[in-house]
Amino acid sequence: MSGNLHAEVVVIGAGPGGYAAAFRSADLGKQVILIEKDSALGGVCLNRGCIPSKALLHLAKVIGDAKSLEKSGVTFGDPTLDLDAIRSWKDSVVSKLSKGITKLAQARKVEVIQGTAAFDSATQLRVENNGSTQVVTFDNCIIATGSIAAGIPGIPTDHPRIFNSTGALMLPAIPERLLVIGGGYIGLEM
Which positions fall inside the FAD/NAD(P)-binding domain (predicted)? Predict the structure, then answer.
């Protein structure tokens, strides 16, 4: 990255709040820069939360629906699960939706910069990405950095049998038993 950039509106975070703010600002005629630390737009919900868990819930519902048809005289064999194929399908759903957000940004001429933003002043920030720095000045800034998984005091996060919802979506096998601590929607869907 080289040279300084300027935008009327800078939005930090490309989750549902961030990209909606960026798109609305662009629709109102503003020059917009959208900054996101992840390589894919969409935030936790799209990339590691609601959408992946709902994709998996859909598969579970299809299996349940097939089993319930037995009452109607239609019988299917027991399902076999190919976790790698399921994960690949889930990832393709997420990728398609994230690419859709990218296309919407391009259509609105919203410039997307990947990296982590840090403020230098009330009208300037720098974006760090892989050792390079981009300076961005702005008239207005919207901070929509979203959320991260909450830790629980006294429970280690580096234990191989303790993981957050992101880790649960990447398990190499379906556990026979799973204890979910917390009542957020992603945890409930697990």
Answer: 8-190
Asked if residue 127 lies in contact with residue 134, where contact means CB atoms within 8 angstroms, the answer is: yes
- Any idea what DSSP says for residue 136? E
Domain map of the chain by residue range? Answer: 4-149
Q: Angle 52-20-98 (CA atoms, 0-180°, nearest 5)?
A: 35
Which candidate, 147, 136, 128, places its Cα nearest to that of 111?
A: 136
Query: 4-149, what's its fold?
Result: FAD/NAD(P)-binding domain (3.50.50)
Residues 6+ apart with CB under 8 A from 78: none
**pLDDT tens-place string over residues 98-154:** 999 999 999 999 999 999 999 999 999 999 999 999 999 999 999 999 987 777 888
Residues ≥6 apart with Cβ < 8 Å to 75: 69
Contacts of 130 (CB under 8 A, 6+ apart): none
Q: What is the dihedral of CA 139, 101, 99, 185, to 10 degrees?
A: 120
The DSSP line for 61-130 is: HHHHHHHHGGGGT---PPP---HHHHHHHHHHHHHHHHHHHHHHHHHTT-EEEESEEEEEETTEEEEEET
